[in-house]
Amino acid sequence: MPRDDAHIAANRFAMGMAPGDRAAITGDPRGWVLAQLAQPDAAPGLDRFADSATLLVRALKARRDKDPDARKSLRQDYMAEAAARTRAGALSATPARERLVRLWSNHFTISVQRPAVLPLAGAFEREAIRPHVTGRFLHMLRAVVRHPAMLLYLDNARSIGPQSAAGERHGRGLNENLARELMELHTLGPDGGYSQADVEHLARILTGWTLDAEAGGFRFAPRLHQPGAKTVLGIAFHEAGEAEGDRALEMLARHPATARMVATRLARHYVADDPPPALVDRLVRRYLDSDGDLGEVTRLLVEGDEAWAEPLVKMRAPDDLLAATLRAFGGAPEAEDRALVSSLAVMGQTPWAAPSPAGWPDRAEAWAAPEALMLRLEWARKAAPALARRGHFLWPDADLSEATRRIVSGAATKAEALFLILASRDFQRR
Known about the structure:
By secondary structure, the chain is mainly α. It is built from 23 helices and four strands. The chain has helices at residues 5-13, 21-25, 29-37, 52-65, 68-91, 95-107, 121-129, 137-146, 148-153, 165-170, 177-186, 196-205, 242-253, 256-270, 277-289, 294-303, 318-328, 337-346, 364-367, 370-390, 402-409, 414-423, 425-428; strands at residues 209-211, 218-220, 230-232, 235-237.
């Protein structure tokens, strides 16, 4: 398939080609992407959902009262928002921002495989991720760590300093999950130069960062906080209560290893599974020079040549594949909530349900393995007839290779032609 910058802009930097996109993109593909990065988040259909404080209070009350109807209502809300988020990828006027939301939401994974997280998953993405995808990494990091969904998912809500007032009275102790994942997955990376002692001391710093069960949201509880000095990465943290955690997050966000982790994450998502080292180095420098300004780092990536060099180098994850399919139909807003969410479940990517804190993989081998391919091809086979009945599939011929067009031209029915397009390398990759 020849290089087509409009195709790359729509599929690699955004969520797929929608009706009217080619005309809007052609002439200045990079400018089309950059203009979206300069706009605030305005994902359609998400402003009707409750905030995390309201949801947390509802969830805690449902658990306390052992109320099955209240729990069912929360599950229905999750289903509705998961579907709305899928539609947002297909209907957004700023799909390049939507891709960034997916990227950073996956980086800071919370998972509904922990039942306590399910009511808060959508609110976490809306509150901790969406406002910050082109802001400073520190601001996103702080919003993530203080969010009830993360405090529950990685158990910090119940982490207690061993020598704190609560620890000495009840004998309950430290939980290191959040501190470990903060270092290994969210900031420094597994080769970031930290030790087990650093993890333990960061966990001590974060004791007292917990939930407000009555008002919902974050609160600092001094009686849970481990007193005394701590040392992380050779830096001494004197007793300062909640401020210790804020200082630790600032240190982690500004660390050179974090700059490299962020640069590699972006380059891997947009350029190649194994991105060019020179590109990563440039992104690292921009991150450090801009004090972790994700907008500046992302703009440098868009302005460079590497992400535009070759088409179809990245494999679509199921969420990406479904959004691209819906965009090609003009969004398909009439699709039922359960049908959208079950489509993703069938292909192995239920919304906000990653199997571990590492999130969904962003390398081809995970989604191109035989079993994963069979799942998505089976979905395409079953979905094609229903999609074909909805209307014309708006996939320009220029976006299909000669080989694919020849195969599609021999299809006996519209549904068969649509299946062949959905199953093609041209559509499965971006």
